[in-house]
Amino acid sequence: MRSVLVLxxxxxxxxxxxxxxxxxxxxxxxxxxxxxVAVIGxxxxxxxxxxxxxxxxxxxxxxxYGLAILTTKADWSPWLAAxxxxxxxxxAAAALGYPLLRLKGHYLALATLGLNVSFSIVASNxxxxxxxxxxxxxxxxxxxxxxxxDGEQTFLWFGLxxxxxxxxxxxxxxxxxxxxxxxxxxxxxxxxxxxxxxxTGVSVTAFVLSAIYAAIAGCLFAAHVHFVSxxxxxxxxxxxxxxxxxxxGEGSVAGAIVGAALLTFLPEWLRVLGEGYLAFxxxxxxxxxxxxxxxxxxxLRRWRRPALxxxxxxxxxxxxxxx
Amino acid sequence: xxxxxxxxxxxxxxxxxxxxxxxxxxVDLTVGNGEFVALIGPNGAGKSTLLNVLTGLSAPTAxxxxxxxxxVTRLPTHRRIRAGLGRTFQHGRLFPRLSxxxxxxxxxxxxxxRGEAGLRAHxxxxxxxxxxxxxxxxxxxxxxxxxRRMVELTRVLACEPRVLLLDEPAAGLNLGEVEDLMARLRxxxxxxxxxxxxxxxxxxxxxxxxxxVVVLNFGRKIAEGTPAEVQADPAVLAAYLGEGxxxxxx
Lengths: 323, 250
Known about the structure:
The complex is a heterodimer. Chain A is an all-alpha fold.
């Protein structure tokens, strides 16, 4: 329940900001919302099931290119094009997941990184389909009930609504048997199998869910920017998504949103540093991994619940501990 | 030879080689419905390897495993668990990111057709039966070692197994906790008629609980019988105390 309240508060904050900030900040907020959708997706794979993916951006790209190609080459409506773009990305993740997820840890990270690099190479070189490094321009925007979602403010409202829905769905999955199974798999694969959990099936499901969220983010991106090119989906973006999740707090939907927003705005706030930003960013990530391994969400949890209940003593355990 | 269908668990001709090392050599193990069998042997005798083969964590080099007469030799672990096998680990393996009741719910989720509320109710009922309901909403990190092991056992029981494999459940428990564990195991067997295979170094516990004892040494079954028979078996004495002791004992 508390996580639903936190999610609603974040969405309302975004909505309130949409009346108070400049066009430029609105654009950044839109980028933050789109990144947040992708990072909530990554949270299924990495935060819950413990699958390190450095190829998340490739799935964002698959969704974006799917929508771009179907709308510009086949003249589909973007709404209609989004369906096969997202479903196709999910299928691709399932087909890739079965062989890829036999790998663990560093090996999986490297393989997914390779997947992202392959995606960039294909997107740059399959010129008839993708336009090569020139990308695809003039992707049509979204129209809802005769109303064009082409301004930064109106698109932000739409983006926030999508983020709210997908955030709620993620929270529902978190609290379901699938969510518990994903966390059990991350905590201890052998013990998970020993409680009857299909470890491979649950891992692939988490991977597919993460790809579906990524593809939706990609569709939002294509419909908002009206232009896609291979550079928008290279592996550096995958590393950024992972950083957003770690900064915000893996395993938490609110953390994914906060991390996405923070790392979208931080480069703008620190523009004065110039090239020095990368050094600052590296040191910040290091500091977070060392001092805040559970991210901002973990820090807030610690404030709320300062100490664990006492060990197995009758006094602390008479059912008084509620959520 | 009893027909395989009458046994809850029957493993025949189990051999497991790791390269040149023979960890299990042609071991047979049958467990009748509701029977309590103890599996003992010196360290390195192959007891845990046998549990790993039975649960599908490691594939046997040769041999066949049947649960309720159904061949499960090639099934992956989670399918064997759903078919009625349950196992605890030597040091208790829980999911630290889930609360106690959520840990139990992962086990209860095997039985299809239970909604979220039904799962929780089933998990709480299992905790109540084990006298652990006050721990339901605790994080795993707040549990004592003994309680961790009891919660792990509860999670396995929530899967409603027909055959329960226990890997040194008393290791690291204090005397009171061992007594409590034995009482719980007796009660569970009386209520559910679950067959149990117990690996244990605590001989007092083995002798008081087991109906039949199987002794492994160097991957071979060297003796099988009632606790009293096994205790008097010279091969068993030799395995535990060395050849000289066995001759002296004669």
